[in-house]
Amino acid sequence: MIRFTLLILIMFSLIAGSCSGRKNKLDHSKLIPEKELIPILTDIYITDGLLTIQKVQYMFSSPDSLSTYHHIIKKHGYSKETMDKTMKYYFIKNPKKLIKIYDQVLGILSEMESLVEKEALLAKGHIENHWTGKEFYIFPDLSGTDSARFDITLNKTGVYTLAFSATLFPDDQSVSPRITVFSCHPDSIETGKRDYIKTIYYIKDGRPHTYTLIINDPGNTTLHLRGWFYDFDNRPDEREKHLIIEAISFTYTSVAL
């Protein structure tokens, strides 16, 4: 992937550079120094990877990759023209050096990946996330089939915690948007007694908010925890919904008898 990203950037630089004319002599004056070129390429690769994530694509409608690259270059204090000139010089005049620069970028990315994996393992060692459902829910749902419903089996005595982040946008047309959760016995899921957890209503300001529900399981029998991350009083069509549910976790803490 990184080779592909850099190739796209190089090709773009060559195409853009060709507009300056064949008579312009290709030299190494006023190039971006190697020590500053490496973090620029690193940021470009990370951004390119982020733009492949569905949640990011949803938040940034029809992202213009080239405009994103220009923003990164400008953030580092250089112009698009200087970046074009630098990449064109290395690609034509010093490709071996460009490979070495690429190797350094790859080394930085590998180190970052190892650090993230290490932190993830440490976090998992403290508390384990038992959530097995979808990682996130996005509305409007293009397929029109996702109800954000979940069904979890509780079979241990203790305290369960359901936590998640919800971003409800101001243009959402649902009435009293909220999460609805109840527990019941497995032999009477549809018709038996339902014990509802206290309802939490969402804040409609376009910002992510963290919500937490605490569920106590007495442990006398197996229970089902069923609910909907997105419940409301009216019947909005798919185009009138605008919500993101993410960062979902379902954790368990045992209680001494």
SSE topology:
Elements: H1 2-18, H2 34-50, H3 54-59, H4 65-75, H5 80-93, H6 95-126, E1 137-139, E2 149-154, E3 158-168, E4 178-184, E5 195-196, E6 200-201, E7 209-217, E8 223-231, E9 243-254
Antiparallel strand pairs: 1-9, 2-8, 3-7, 3-9, 4-5, 4-6, 4-8
Helix pairs in contact: 1-5, 2-4, 2-6, 5-6
Looking at this protein, list some descriptive labels:
257 residues; five-stranded antiparallel sheet; alpha+beta; 2 domains
Q: What would you say this structure looks like, in words?
A:
By secondary structure, this protein is an alpha+beta fold. The protein has two domains: 2-126, no CATH class; 137-254, Jelly Rolls (Sandwich). Helix content is 38%, strand content 24%. α5 packs across α6. It is elongated. The chain starts with a helix and ends with a strand. Mean pLDDT is 80; it is low at 17-23.
Helix content: 25-40%
By DSSP, the count of extended strands is 9
Element-by-element helix/strand order: HHHHHHEEEEEEEEE
Strand content: 15-25%
Radius of gyration: 26 Å
Secondary structure class reads alpha+beta
- Cα distance spanning the termini: 53 Å
Number of domains: 2
Number of helices: 6
Which outline best applies? Answer: elongated
Low-confidence stretches: 17-23
The average pLDDT score comes to 80
| Major beta sheet summary | 5 strands, antiparallel
